[in-house]
């Protein structure tokens, strides 16, 4: 019987102690850490990893997105100051999880990276709630109108559920969930689930 390989990750952070602490937490949780960097130097070998965990400072966001372009590698960004605008920029770029430094714990780090490996989206709860509070709830999203089933899937994505969790919650098959997500990405012209959640949140669709 073939066993599933453990997920792999690359850890990028400018503070050596913080970086090594992240490495230790992830290794203890069963992840394989393929390498470390500061400000993405040395350049991560993204073709060999499931998740690139990077510190979003300066030009790092643009560089990380460019490195992962066209690959299945998930992006997880840590940020020092979690402003609404910065989180939106990060999510719009295709990053699947955002981890503010001031609320980061070993448990939240491991849970977020695992969620991204499973295909989920992880956003700061307080910022997501703020986005939801300040948008007008509408029945449709412009000319591309999302139907109720698509909005339900998006809401659960925003809550951090992966494909299996969404299927169980809505009593769908996992194949149906994947098809709905594909339709949503097509309608919203988004490359990733995180982008779709960010756009739908801003437009009041969820």
UniProtKB/TrEMBL annotation:
Q: In its keyword annotation, does this UniProt entry include Endoplasmic reticulum?
A: no
> For the HTH luxR-type domain, which residue ranges apply?
138-204
**Domain of life of the organism in this record?**
Bacteria
A Pfam cross-reference name: GerE
Keyword tags: DNA-binding, Transcription, Transcription regulation
Protein's UniProt name: LuxR family transcriptional regulator
State the organism of origin. Answer: Plantactinospora solaniradicis
């Amino acid at each position: 019987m073939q066993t599933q390989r453990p997920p792999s990750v690359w850890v990028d952070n400018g503070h050596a102690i913080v970086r090594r602490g992240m490495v230790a937490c992830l290794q203890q949780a069963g992840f394989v850490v393929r390498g470390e960097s500061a400000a993405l130097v040395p350049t991560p070998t993204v073709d060999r990893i499931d998740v690139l965990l990077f510190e979003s400072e300066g030009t790092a966001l643009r560089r990380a997105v460019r490195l992962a372009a066209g690959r299945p590698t998930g992006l997880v960004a840590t940020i020092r100051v979690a402003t609404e605008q910065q989180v939106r920029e990060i999510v719009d770029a295709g990053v699947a999880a955002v981890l503010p430094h001031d609320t980061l714990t070993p448990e939240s780090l491991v849970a977020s990276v695992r969620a991204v490996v499973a295909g989920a989206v992880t956003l700061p709860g307080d910022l997501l709630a703020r986005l939801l509070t300040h948008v007008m709830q509408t029945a449709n999203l412009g000319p591309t109108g999302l139907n109720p089933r698509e909005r339900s899937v998006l809401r659960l994505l925003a809550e951090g559920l992966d494909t299996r969790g969404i299927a169980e919650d809505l009593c769908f098959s996992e194949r149906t969930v994947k098809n709905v997500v594909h339709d949503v990405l097509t309608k919203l012209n988004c490359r990733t689930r995180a982008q779709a959640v960010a756009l739908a949140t801003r437009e009041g669709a969820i």
